[in-house]
Amino acid sequence: MAIEMIKSLKEHFTYEELSKILNINESILCRYVRGDILPSLSQSQYIANSLRNSKFIRDFIFKKVKVYEDGFVDLSEIYEDPSILKVTVYLLFSIIPQEFNKILTPSVNGLPFAILFSQITRSKIIISKKYMDSRYIQYTDEIIEERNALITKMYIRKDSIRKGDKILIIDDVMRTGKTLSTLVSLVNKQKGIVVGAGLIVCLGNEWKRVLPDNFKVFTLIKM
Q1: How many whole angstroms separate alpha carbon 83 and alpha carbon 5?
Q2: Domain holding 138: CATH number?
Q3: Which of 13, 42, 74, 133 has the most CB atoms in a 10 Å sphere around its CB?
């Protein structure tokens, strides 16, 4: 993960800039990227922690997020650039304890982040949709109240979650918490255990009113 983060950041920063962030010689960073040498476990942990706690890197990601007057949060600059997407997901991964065996994400905006996250953690991914793919497949459903009091449903396959499965929810943006709360209800109906949620952006505090006080939310950007 440490090497992949450096490789991805190298597409946007010079070795000199990365050297100042990590306090590691430029030539050493270059050899890491080329694959000539590998960092030790302690060095890898140091690199990951330094990047995770770097205001410079967080500001870089933050500048890729655009919020429009109608409330739409645009993360296209992140998920359309593979290198930035990797850095973002690795940073999110670095703040989430590995206490899960499956990942649940709502279709469609959270998919780019959840798919890469599942590859990193080698966890099965479950996709919740607002429709059923086939009448021959059994689903668990839950009602969700959308904006303007529009009532719809969210579905997950009944064979996707077994009793006792530890589920981490991954999504791009959380505003009201309604989607997240609905996903939690779907998991509970199938006797799974939601260990928390990883978000790229959390807006405001409205979501706190619909989620339990002890619910674990891990987010990169709070707005």
Answers
A1: 8
A2: 3.40.50.2020
A3: 13
